[in-house]
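Handout, page 2. Input:
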Amino acid sequence: MQRREPLGGAEFAPETTYLNSASSGLLPRRSAAALRAAVAESASYGTMGRDYFAAPNAARAAFARLLDVPAERVAVGSSVAVQSALIAASLPPGSEVLAPEGDFSSLVNPLGTHPHVKLRTVPLEALADAVRPGTALVAFSAVQSLDGRIADLAAVREAARAHGARTFVDATQAAGWLPLRAGDFDYLVSGAFKWLLCPRGTTFLAFGGDASEDAGWPAALHAGWVAGEDLDESTYGLITPAATARRFDEPYAHFSYVAAEHSLALIEELGVPAVHAHNTDLAAYYREGLAARGLTPRPAPGSAIVSTPEIAGAEHRLAEAGVRISVRGGLLRAAFHLYNSTDDVDRLLSLLA
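Output:
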């Protein structure tokens, strides 16, 4: 393959060979600079800064553009688990939720532990065929955290529609490198601290499909003052929720969203298609190198995540050599993102040899 240099120019200068974006992404220099400025500002203006709303609203708008959904349909939050619990609480008692076996716990645990929800799990590859009459919601990750498998998004969506079920997609391991449209699903949630290069504490929930206040929106169960229509009148007592998805906002982690605004701007500038081509080319190059060494990586080509059995024990040796990588479920998981290059792949393969 043609050799690839990192995207993003001077935004990144990691001191390690960083192949762990599936755990958390690197913070761009512009985001780190904005964060340092916000921390300095807090010494004189408090920890909400001079403008508490500008950064989360800019981040909301950028995420909406990246996922091709109106900003009015995007809520700002702190964690996938909180957003998943909101969706779980919106379901009628006795609802069946269908999910893949072994999907990420922040998505499925709030659904499975809700007292009025019945969670049924099947292998990811059988998900579309397992939708049945009476299934209320299909909840699944677009890309599996464990091994990088990509769900058959179109097949699951069509099966759900055929049976009158809603779809709830976790894009945490996909948004930022895999082209997605939030409007193709009823609900899409994404933690932004991985491939979207934001700090922890940044999460977005998008409402697609025919979701609206009258059709598909859950009750604003955790609405605080930032979720009010009139913020000046929402500080005390009962509030009137915002007419947009802002009614589902959680109080903003100010510093996290100050940085998020700049991180999302970088992804926009580069473009998800360009990041997708870069990441998957590097992953394909790595797969070729593994195959040449007699190893069988997972999953099939097309993912930016490559997980390999039989070499999980190499993690500590790689760490000592300055390679940041992770092991999940006995698989050595390498995740390739815009700050990686073919030199990184060559170094990893040489160390594995």
